[in-house]
Amino acid sequence: MGNSGSAVKVCTDHQGGINWLSLSPDGQRLLTGSEDGTARLWSTADSQCHGHFQGHESYITFCHLENEAAFTCSADHTIRKWDVVTGQCLAIYRGHTSIVNRILVAKDYLFSGSYDRTARCWSVDKEKQIQEFRGHRNCVLTLAHYSSRDVLEEEEEEEEEEEKVSRDLLVTGSTDCTVKVWWVSSGRCYQTLLGHTGAVLCLILDAPNRELFSGSTDYTIRTWNIVTGEQLKVFKEHQGSVICLELVNRHLYSGSADRTVKCWFVDTGERIQTYKAHKHSVSTLKYHAGILFTGSGDACARAFNSRSGVLQKIFRGHKFIINCIQIHNELLYTASHDGTLRIWDIRGICKRNKRRLKKERSVQGRSSQKGSLSRLFNNKVGCMVQQENGE
């Protein structure tokens, strides 16, 4: 069993549960979106709240932080853009007719998915809708984005002239059990990926390898070729809905309602590790420096040695489900439905893990050296035998 940890700081400014936590690309700020209808901006330097964004008429479902702007979406059917310095609302994106549950910012685009069964694309700067993606039979829960330039060779591209101008594609996962891939420029559906028999809860994209991973309430993870739409593999060992995914160095980590995380080797589909100890669903995952951090419905965060699966530490203090975690400068940030943001010092376990990795590499190096000497010896013996036999 791992040791219990105490938070170095507990931030209690929100008056409702925190639904999402986003870290800016430069690592200087964090953004929390809450059931209280507000978002708050936090400095990673001093852990203080430096911004309070008010204006939504209902709870915030999700948020995204850039270096200079913050984005929030809400059950009030809108998305808002905020100035991180002044706290001023810079834009309101209107058009959805139900809860907006997910947003994604890529290039100059803002994408959104909603319970109104559509996904939409907006111009970040011009505050207007560029495209609507209509075709799902139920709500859109999760989004991913890529460019065909990342995955297609010139001779493979068969899109229409209109779509050659903009080669961006949006991927949507829905409770209608399908994943759809759309051309951003035209709104046309490029692929419908069929196979899941339950709602698609999470997506993760590996564009360089042309792969998309989807997790579902049907207890499976499926891998797809995003060029052909072919289903490549089905990972079937979970006994509950697959809630979250993390992909690191061709290793896929999946968190489930069955209270476990599993690690899969993507190239073979082999399950190589199971991380146990959770007393409720695993709601969020984050890999950092050889350590797998998890957040759970049992109100605890945990740190596991990613390779051995050994539980290294339990972070106790939250009262309800941990919805999101972030890591920066060897500090772990956990956001919970109890309305608090908690900050934990993880330097100790990171340091221990680095020592362990160094020791393992040293052992592997000696082992490899012995193997090389052994092969050299065997080769020499083989040569001598051949010479004696006159070969």
TrEMBL record:
Alphabetized UniProt keyword annotations: Repeat, WD repeat
Source superkingdom: Eukaryota
Xref: SMART domains: WD40
WD repeat spans: 11-43, 93-132, 169-192, 193-234, 235-274, 315-347
One protein family per Pfam: WD40
Listed name of the protein: WDR86 protein
Species in which this protein is naturally found: Platysteira castanea
Lineage: Eukaryota, Metazoa, Chordata, Craniata, Vertebrata
